[in-house]
Amino acid sequence: MASRLELHEELCDLLGSRNVYFQPPETIKLRYPCIIYQRNTGDTQFANNKPYTFKIQYMVTVITKDPDTDLIKKIAMHFPMSRMDRHFTTQNLNHDVFMVYY
After folding, report:
1. Which residues pair with residue 46 across a beta bridge?
2. What CATH number did the domain enclosing 79 receive?
3. How many domains, in total, are found in the chain?
4. Residues 78, 14 contacting (CB under 8 angstroms)
């Protein structure tokens, strides 16, 4: 099973910086663009009445000042088990939220 730290490194590579934060406390000053992610839920697949696979779902939020960032497509194309959940803008920052099974 892939680890959260491997996911973290993949997100850093996609972003092109180390501005990737796992469940950051409110005291952290974020640098933009950035990615914030947190564990969300899991998915168990069953075969022959037994658990066959288990994947953890992470909520991955891309935060940028650029409304046309290419990060959205990069994440969607990089993680085959992902879907874009929503977009919203707060304090002139664009937030794109993905659900990623990893």
Report:
1. 51
2. 3.30.2000
3. 1
4. yes
